[in-house]
## 1
Amino acid sequence: MSQQENNATMKRELSTVSVMFIAVGAMVGSGVFSMTGVGVTRAGSAAILSYFVAACVSIISSLPHIIAISACPCAGGYYNYISRFLSPTVGYFYQWQRLVGTLALSPVAMVFAQYLQIVFPEVPSMVASLGIIVVFALINLLNVRTITKFNNVFVVVMIIALLVFVGFGAPHVDVTRLNNFMENGFQGMILGVVLFMSTYGCAPFVANLGREMKNPRKSVPLAIIGGTFLTAAIYMLVTFTYVTTYDYHANPGAAVGDVAKTFMPGPAFWFLMIGGALLAIMTTINAGIMATARAMWSGARDGVFPKWFGHINKNGVPDRMILAVAVLMAFPVVSGMSLEYVTYLSSAPGFIFSMLIPISTLFIPKRFPHLYANSFMPLKRPAHIALVVVVCGILAYLSGSSITQLTGKAIICLIIYYGLVALNLIRVRKQYEKEGKTFGGLKTDYDPFWIEEEARLAAEAAAASK
């Protein structure tokens, strides 16, 4: 069964509000509660600026993604554009990189354990991390409408809790702490941007839900752009409170909860821990599993991964791939990798492979001109090319900054990994030959929705011109 044949079992149930809440929930949990302390250690007070710069860079970097998904919505997101508009072989390597990228979800589970121990100190961190992964893997086996109802409530409570933190911190703000704003220099600020990009990078997760949205052309731009700016405002408020109320030099890497203890009364503090930290982290884990499983599922349907993982359950969700993603998330937890190192390990190749996404969008106007013309921002060819060049330049720079933080052993491991992935491509091609097909034939295996919509829009344009 082809990938497109199975898309019919996925239901269009996600509203624009639900999609935005998924994006905000994905970003806020992973950013404020898992990265603020680490980012302040790298950038100092300039972490406030790092969050803002990262938001701007993320929006710019996401524009080609937004154009693509608003023109050609589908299940599985970016893999479909790379494999159909560039090459199935390139798409193959992108999907296997996504396995490494999935590790970026693990630090969120690690941070959940840290915050849970504030409330229940007797719970072992590994048990808490693995437990929350299992819980949300099971929740994601339900239908998408049920999942998003819970997510929407969680996000509202989470935002209220963070505003409570800012409110109680306001009387304790000491702006003189900002005097040495760029204490770690420009490079420190940029390392903060690299770390925070991994949190804003959760926003484009929603592209993988394109075939489950009621109106993807409207929902995706609003969710990514609006959600990122809303999240940035929250990030900056919380970070401003963090650096102006707390001596982070005395306790580098302190969590937001550690700062909150210094000025928040008991009830408000526990509301922040439970209603803010724990819920925020849970929304990120939920969005990560939901979106990543669908992205990986798309590859399984094409045989990039074993086709056994391409199964869809009665609720219309890729159940086997959801469980596979949960196992991948658990690996860094069990192996004892640090939160910061896992982020760099997943970001270094991730930024490089992400350049394939904007490049692939250059081919949409030629293949589906009417879909492109009706996308969120149908740029003229020169402007489109210029945007892609800028985005690729940004991603290349961020990738280089991430690679410098890796050990030689980690780099060698990545080289070996991609070498094995290349060897596996031989097996995949032979499997296609046994089935009387060619792997390269995937390049024209377009989503039926794209074909139908292109024909409909072309007919409307022809009728209007008469």
Note: The longest helix spans residues 266-301.
## 2
Amino acid sequence: MGKHPLTQKSKTKKMSFKAVSLKTVMIAIMLSCTGALLSACAFKPLYGTTQTNAKLQETLKSVSIPEVPGRVGQVVRNELIFRFTGGGHADAPQYRLSLVVKESVKSQFVRRDGDSEGQFLELKTSFKLYRVGDNKLPILEGSSFAKAAFNDNTSIYSNVRSRRDAEDRTAKTTAEDLQVRISAFLSGNS
């Protein structure tokens, strides 16, 4: 005769309980090691204080942005000024951000008759961040790329409006990208 079925089930439960608890212990060990590694790599919050113990928001207020030619360039500049100052006045400039904005439009969604139903607006923004008084070498430089689709409609007004909306979307995306990149740089280097 074999063993009673109830004793078989209780042994199975004990064995699976041990396996789960071992798995839980391994996960806990891995998480604690990950936490220790992250703390060792000098991770710090983006909007805390900078290396000189100045608040990052105050440092961002000291970034001056000269005028940028073109409507889209001006929208990028205005978005950045609002993001850096919160709508207030800029402090005495310690940094200068130079922007070059280039836009291009590419047709997409081409029909059989050769007309396009939609287009993509591509925005490439090159930037250089200088310390005021040292305009020779930038302390940070790079470029940001944004893309937005818009439709060609039969109405001229609709075409103008949809392109302007695409311009505003790409400008806002570019400003968000530049804000994060410049904030990250200034939080560790100012």
Note: DSSP finds four helices and four strands in the chain.
## 3
Amino acid sequence: MTGTLDIRTARRRYITVCVLFWLPLGLSIAPLILLFTERGMPMAAIAGFFAAHSLTAAALELPTGGLSDVLGRRTVLAAAGLLNLAALTLVGLGTAPWLLGLGMALMGAGRALSSGPAEAWYVDTVQTHSGPDAELRTGLARGGSATSAALATGTLLGGALPWLLGLGPDLGARLSESTSGLVLPLSVPMLLGAAVEIAFVLYVLTALREPHRPAATLRDVLRGIPATVVGGLRLGGRDALVRRVFLSAGAAGSALAAIELLTPGRAAALTGASESGAVLFAALACAGFICAGIGSHLAPLTARLAGSGERAVMVSLGASASGLLLLGATAAFAGVGSMVLAAVGYGLVYLGLGAAGPSENDLLHRRVASSGRATALSVQSLALQLVAALTGLIIGVLPSGPLPWLLGGTVLLAGALLWIRRSGTRPPTPAATPQPHTMSSSSTSTAGSDPHQQHADQ
């Protein structure tokens, strides 16, 4: 599996990986909390399950990024799929709190493993085929659109399946009775997601070709990962453009925390009941994913109209921030007009974030060498998660009303303003890229005599 793929084939396989990875997680969005409740879990326990997921993902984010740069993209992606397979199975079938908590922790580990390897594989493949100046934004945009489409489809399907099972004559009750309560109607989306994870692992192992990497011993892995992680952190410290990408990710995390924490309560207040509010929230989440997918698809056009990738990020984040500020401005008002403006604001948030992502990552990939690419993506993801967690804690103590929305909007607007000062986009010299352990660097040498020239991201 060492042959070089052409760009169209690499793009198609990258999109397929995005769909197969995110569809199972989309299937779990709507039924997850209801399934925990149906299993008799109190809200405190449910909060603990989600904390296990978040803390595990945050703790493993950087080490697993380094793991991808040392062992290879395909190996780590397959491991992420296996962890998600185990997690969805435990969550779907588990009845004891410790099993459900373990399932959520494994899901967090799978999330950490998955943040970066697929995208790093795509960029490596394209640049091996066409050189370091290859066009990346279109493929990254289509991958983002595919991710959003998979999440939207999974959210709708995951919410509809338990409802459809309830339409038949005691079909759901018979399912529970025949499995002694092990499989509930709300479990079915999780088990379907587990089946998709099997397909994901098989596809990754058979379709993602990589340059040959030297066999890695445990000592090599343990020695190579810390050096790779330190290289990624140092890059953000000394490269102004990469630092802006990381800070923008944190600003996006603040916006997402605000909208995801505040929208369910606002939907329930609008409909007058938590059950109907949950249905409205599922529809809004699906619409948000669709808007993000449209924004991602429009990212290349946005960059052309804006004149550069950096201006495109500024415009996109500014549009997203205006949407969140619009949500804040309408939070204290009722009426049809306010609802319409709030819906427009909600769509703008996701549309802008979707449009900003491919341009941000295009800039990042042209700044980071292949040997540290997945690590840089993990640093970006970690920035988003940490700022999102901090914003969530602050929102929890703020009074209800416009203020929590305006907090997220203000932080995101600050992220957009970071891009006013334009910096050059020429690739840094090899010395400016992260220098991980030599094992990581040598893994790219089969692409050419000068791996830094062959794999420099930007």
Note: The chain has two domains: 1-216, 231-423.
